[in-house]
Write a structure and sequence with these properties.
By secondary structure, this protein is of the alpha/beta class. The protein contains 20 helices and 11 strands. The protein folds into 2 domains: 253 residues, 3-Layer(aba) Sandwich (D-Maltodextrin-Binding Protein, domain 2); 170 residues, 3-Layer(aba) Sandwich (D-Maltodextrin-Binding Protein, domain 2). The chain is globular. The N terminus is likely disordered.
Length: 475
């Protein structure tokens, strides 16, 4: 049985680790403040170190350890068994028990079974992208708030006080060193001078293709690398199937490209559709004009009347109808589309300006946060950082519970190759590895009021440019 973490020896270890790592973490946070894409405070405070001395009665500490067991609850898409094995791997590595050459890919699960956790770990299941603010509030009102949670509503959980700032707790965790993480990604979760979360999983905005439609149009294969010209050519070829009557839709909702195109074509940070200043940026104006040209050419769905849509899709969801050639999505949706088109689904990057060039990855990152009601935030931070950022933890998680459509949040080549080589669509996503340092982060994961306002404004603007005439029979 392993000793509890509340003993003096473990506290001293924490203090020493904190002091050693403090300076590098402060430098890292200073860098993050200059590269964050979200409009948050860019000044990082000096992180306080752990006290250098503390008066504690060892016998009192031991009695406390025996009398009260530590409990941690984690809410994520990971199963109970996966979470248990990851926690046991954390104990094995922190105690130096894993063994030379043993990795998350090769560790014997029966060995992990033999490890006793020095805390009680409970697990709540969530959707693939985590839980939202409403779910957390419900748990809180029921007195069952998790200590660690993955969320797809970061801005809301911070605003509602559901997550605690963990800047000081993270300062002692070496997994956050700048040479192994993506600083811009970490900075997405830095708000008002405090770090509120760390990246766990990341999806990427892409263009999906149903090759069944494209093959019918005489397009046997598509390149992952696309430009604005090559995409127009593809859409024109697909539209030739509609020479006599409308049988397919080349592109579904071209307006969905607008939040991403300025980033892809001009390597520009996120531009708000509802900000007059951002709309005047050349990158935004050119991107909107490009989307407008797709709609005016009849390639997209914005000008379809209700009658047109009913005739074409017969009440079936357009993206599952097998009558749409290309559409916008994020890679976390891969399992959904693969279920309906397992042999004909393909991916393309967002188009750039030049042919045969990669555009920057357009990422949406989902963080782990610590609950504001957590009683042991240091232990919670250590465990969530291990699960999210340790190479062996990521390899073990991918081995136990393979999940399609997510990019690693660390730069380890072994993690990237280990995960991507075993995924059905990993050959597409692996192409982003060398570009991750240039990635641009889209704030849709935060469900911020700004982003929602942008979506509504864009829809109204498109509707104003392309008003749908009422059907003659209804006039």
């Amino acid at each position: 049985m392993f000793l509890m973490f509340s003993g003096d020896s473990h506290k001293q270890c924490r203090r020493l680790a904190g002091m050693r790592f403090l300076m590098s973490f402060v430098i890292l946070l200073s860098c993050l403040g200059t590269c964050a894409c979200k409009k948050v405070t860019n000044e990082f405070p000096t992180i306080p170190s752990a006290p250098t001395s503390e008066s504690t009665d060892p016998s009192e500490s031991e009695n406390t350890t025996v009398a009260s067991a530590i409990e941690l609850t984690i809410a994520s898409p990971l199963s109970y068994d996966t979470c248990q094995y990851l926690a046991k791997l954390y104990i094995a590595k922190s105690q130096g028990l894993l063994g030379d050459g043993v990795t998350g890919d090769t560790v014997d699960l029966s060995y992990l079974d033999s490890i006793d956790l020095p805390f009680l770990l409970k697990v709540y299941g969530t959707s693939e992208t985590g839980c939202n603010s409403a779910t957390l509030k419900k748990w809180k009102s029921n007195g069952s708030m998790p200590d660690i949670f993955l969320t797809d509503s970061f801005d809301e959980v911070v605003k509602d006080g559901l997550a605690m700032p963990v800047t000081s707790q993270l300062s002692s965790i070496t997994l956050l060193s700048a040479d192994r993480i993506y600083p811009r990604q970490v900075s997405q979760f830095f708000v008002n001078g405090e770090q509120y979360g760390i990246p766990y999983q990341t999806s990427c905005a892409v263009l999906f293709c149903d090759m069944e439609v494209l093959i019918t149009a005489g397009i046997p294969a598509v390149s992952f690398r696309q430009s604005r010209n090559s995409l127009l050519t593809l859409l024109s070829q697909i539209d030739e199937l509609n020479a006599e009557e409308k049988t397919v839709l080349p592109f579904y909702q071209a307006e969905d490209m607008v939040p991403y195109l300025p980033c892809a074509m001009y390597n520009h940070t996120y531009l708000s559709s509802s900000s007059e200043e951002d709309q005047n940026e050349q990158a935004y104006r050119d991107s909107f004009s490009y989307v407008e040209s797709l709609i005016r050419s009849g390639y997209s769905s914005e000008t379809l009347t209700a009658e047109d849509s009913e005739l074409l899709f017969a009440g079936v969801s357009p993206l599952l109808s097998r009558k749409v050639g290309i559409w916008v999505g994020t890679t976390d949706q891969l399992p959904i589309y693969d279920n309906y088109m397992p042999n004909t689904l393909s991916l393309m990057q967002f188009p750039g300006m030049k042919d045969d060039e990669y555009t920057v990855p357009l990422l949406i990152s989902y963080p782990f946060c610590v609950s504001s009601s957590c009683e042991d935030p240091q232990l919670a931070c250590e465990l969530m950082s291990f699960i999210a950022l340790d190479e062996d933890a990521l390899l073990l998680s991918a081995r136990l519970q393979p999940r399609e459509g997510y990019l690693p949040s660390i730069s380890s080549p072994s993690v990237w190759s280990g995960i991507m080589s075993s995924r059905k669509y990993g050959n597409y996503l692996a192409q982003y590895y060398e570009l991750m340092g240039q990635a641009i982060y889209i704030p849709s994961v935060s469900q911020s009021s700004l982003y929602q306002k942008d979506v509504e404004f864009l829809q109204e603007r498109i509707a104003g440019l392309f008003p749908i005439e009422p059907d003659e029979e209804n006039e």
